[in-house]
From TrEMBL:
The active site is at residue 437. S-adenosyl-L-methionine binds at residues 304, 333, 338, 354, 389, 411. This is 23S rRNA (uracil(1939)-C(5))-methyltransferase RlmD. Residues 1-11 have a biased composition (Basic residues). Transmembrane segments: none annotated. It is an enzyme of class 2 (transferase). It comes from Halomonas mongoliensis. SUPFAM superfamilies: Nucleic acid-binding proteins, S-adenosyl-L-methionine-dependent methyltransferases. Residues 26-91 form the TRAM domain. HAMAP family: 23SrRNA_methyltr_RlmD (MF_01010).
Length: 493
């Protein structure tokens, strides 16, 4: 996931990626001369990472931050490589009609939102094109109609990490990383944070500056929950006086407050009464007695950053995976039950597997709590939680043998799920729903499934992180004939 306050893993960028936008006219001037003579660059299209792409007369690629397709721009090259150069804008000479005024005052320096200069509708078209292109490069065909799951363009992010640094003069800096740098940009306003968290930025800066030992603060985690905002202080070494200051801050801002204490093996310690944190996800539409499902979680558990888009993803999974009554379903990388419980509410018999023992325990608690509170006639979520190392193909193969699923749901981290996909292709599970936070690893894994006989029958892009080039996506894979088999099945199966 693209996370505020965290540098994305650095990846070597090739010179031939990307597509969004119109091709520049053949007669348009290319880049002339060397790095100091770059006026009049014509941007051809957007690369996958959202940078503008141009070529010089010799065909060498130039990636330009902040430039849009069709624009003529003056740039400055800041990095020269063998196959391509990297540059930033000096001036937009001819602007694209899709260029927008960035809503955030920190846009030019903060590394969090790299597409605020592009209209939101165009951002989303770009993301759909990127997914389609990456899949096509791997020989994976997708339906002509690709769903778009999207919500608000601001005030959507419910979790963030703020870096903290004290400089040589004792000045306190609190915010997110600058572009291409470990340097912090002081942030007192963020347009994409939910308002309850955004309102804490300026007070937190003052709070850290008032501490006796601000150098003992590593970072701050902000999290929104059904119970209100949560603050977790990464405290490198306990400090009694500062503990009292944090407790007073929490009382003054109606916060749930904890600190993660220690350098080597940090422990979570609540400084306010420990809350039973939760968030809500949809249940199956026909399980009216259940209503919304409540998922308990703890700081450090995986939680999708955009609650509104996550709800749409869960609803989409319920719409795509029909006829689940009594169906054995295996949910891999299940977290605390984001998909497991809603799919169980639709009648599936779910085996939910997660690598983190703590999250497995909370998933089991979530399923047990819903099962205990439902009315007698309601559909009870049937979820068995297990812990397993899903990076091992053998572990996945054993799960497939034991569960015998007719449906598998995958929601892996950025590195994807190649070992699991290899086991799935061999087992030929009828339906596989892959939820991805990295389109490149999704394309790689999708190719494995397609080569194993699957085809993509549904596709969606989820704009989880508006104003960034990061995209989430969902693909439904089915073996040929599976759709016809289910459509022709009797109500009794």
């Amino acid at each position: 996931m693209a996370m505020l306050g965290k540098r994305r893993p650095r990846r070597e960028r090739s010179g031939v990626s990307g597509l969004q936008g119109r091709q520049a006219p053949q007669s348009a001037p290319g880049r002339q001369g060397g790095a100091d003579d770059t006026a009049g660059v014509i941007i051809e299209r957007l690369a996958h990472d959202g940078r503008g792409l141009a070529h010089d007369a010799a065909g060498k690629a130039l990636f330009v931050e902040g430039a849009l397709p069709g624009e003529r721009v003056e740039v400055a090259v800041h990095r020269t490589r063998k196959r391509f150069d990297e540059a930033h804008l000096r001036e937009v000479l001819e602007a694209s009609p899709e260029r927008a005024e960035p809503p955030c005052p920190h846009y030019a320096r903060c590394g969090g939102c790299d597409l605020q200069h592009l209209e939101v509708a165009a951002q989303r078209r770009h993301k759909q094109a990127v997914l389609r292109d990456l899949l096509a490069r791997q020989g994976v065909e997708v339906p002509d109609e690709m769903a778009l799951l999207a919500g608000a363009s601001d005030g959507y992010r419910r979790r963030a990490r703020l870096g903290v640094k004290v400089d040589a003069e004792g000045g306190v800096h609190l915010g997110f990383r600058a572009r291409h740098s470990h340097r912090l940009v002081d942030i007192e306003q963020c347009t994409i944070l939910v308002p309850e968290l955004g309102a804490l930025l300026a007070p937190l800066h003052q709070q850290v500056a008032s501490l006796s030992a601000p150098r003992q603060v590593g970072h701050l985690e902000l999290l929104d929950s059904d119970q209100g905002p949560v603050l977790v202080v990464r405290q490198l070494k306990p400090h009694g006086e500062d503990r009292g200051r944090w407790e007073a801050f929490a009382a003054g801002h109606a916060l749930h407050l904890a600190w993660l204490v220690g350098r080597e093996s940090p422990r979570l310690e609540w400084l306010t009464p420990a809350p039973a944190l939760s968030c809500r996800v949809p249940s199956a539409a026909d399980a009216s007695a259940v209503g919304e499902l409540t998922l308990g979680f703890a700081p450090g558990d995986f939680l999708q950053a955009n609650a509104e888009v996550n709800r749409q993803m869960v609803t989409t999974a319920l719409q795509w995976l029909t006829d689940l009554e009594g169906t054995p379903l295996l949910d891999l990388f299940a977290g605390v039950g984001n998909f497991s419980l809603p799919l169980a509410s639709a009648g599936a018999s779910v085996t939910a597997v997660e690598g983190s023992p703590a999250m497995v325990e909370r998933l089991a608690d979530n399923a047990a709590r819903h099962g205990a509170r439902l009315d007698a006639g309601a559909r009870v979520p049937r979820v068995e939680s297990r812990q397993a190392d899903l990076a091992q193909a053998g572990a996945v193969a054993r799960l497939l043998d034991e569960v015998g699923p007719e449906v598998v749901v995958l929601d892996p981290p950025r590195e994807g799920a190649e070992p699991a996909v290899l086991a799935l292709a061999a087992a030929r599970v009828p339906r596989v729903l892959y939820v991805a936070c990295d389109p490149a690893t999704l394309a790689r894994d999708a190719a494995r499934l397609v080569h194993g006989g699957y085809r993509v029958t549904r596709a969606a892009v989820a704009d989880m992180f508006v104003h960034t080039s990061h995209l989430e996506s969902m693909l439904l894979f089915e073996l040929p004939g599976e759709g016809q088999r289910r459509q022709g099945a009797s109500p009794d199966g």
